[in-house]
Design a protein that fits this description.
alpha/beta; six-stranded mixed sheet; 6 strands; binds guanosine-5'-diphosphate; P-loop_NTPase; GTPase activity; GTP binding
Length: 171
């Protein structure tokens, strides 16, 4: 059988603590959800291969390892990322503010052309951040907007596969 061409891409998750970053990665990679997701310890990544028409993308998905608490540590974490999922909790307005902070950081210090998705997680809970406001913010800043729930699985596969399909494959 002919081997499928493959490319590897690093993507990172950014956002406040407890917005569900680890839960999203777990749901996507292992199809599991934990009500009490253990905090990530140490730098860690999981990989998952996403097939495309002509090739496959090996996503190397980095979770922040709690580094969001130390804003100054962040640049080395996301500098070499081709894509970023900036996550907030749709139930918690404060985390939306923080997401906008991370987006600014990524735009000024991230890789040129880094693809940024704004992810409103916990869509199964009450929406305290207005979806219209969030999507308008994305439109103005050239970002993609998704609403997800790591708990129900809503849009979780979609967000990662859409990210994988953004990377141009050059044979
Ligand atoms: P992180 O610190 O951003 O990595 O957040 P975690 O993945 O550790 O999740 C924090 C808490 O939120 C855990 O108790 C999760 O079970 C919970 N959680 C994560 N995603 C969702 C979701 O989509 N809906 C609900 N209701 N809870 C979630």
């Amino acid at each position: 059988m002919e081997e499928i061409p493959s490319m590897q891409k690093k993507i990172v998750l950014l956002g406040d603590s407890s917005v569900g970053k680890s839960s999203l990665v777990f749901k996507f990679v292992k199809d599991q959800f934990f009500e009490n997701q253990e905090p990530t310890i140490g730098a860690s990544f999981l990989t998952k291969t996403v097939p495309q028409n002509s090739h496959e993308v090996k996503l190397q998905i980095w979770d922040t390892a709690g580094q969001e608490r130390y804003e100054s540590l962040a640049p080395m974490y996301y500098r070499s990322a081709s894509g970023a999922l900036v996550v907030y909790d749709i139930n918690d307005k404060q985390t939306f503010k923080k997401a906008k902070f991370w987006i600014k950081e990524l735009i000024s210090n991230g890789e040129n052309g880094v693809i940024i998705f704004l992810v409103a997680n916990k869509s199964d809970l009450e929406h305290n951040v207005d979806s219209v406001e969030a999507s308008k913010y994305c439109e103005e800043n050239g970002l993609f907007y998704f609403e997800t729930s790591a708990k129900t699985g809503h849009n979780v596969v979609e967000v990662f596969t859409s990210m994988a399909s953004q990377f141009e494959y050059v044979p």
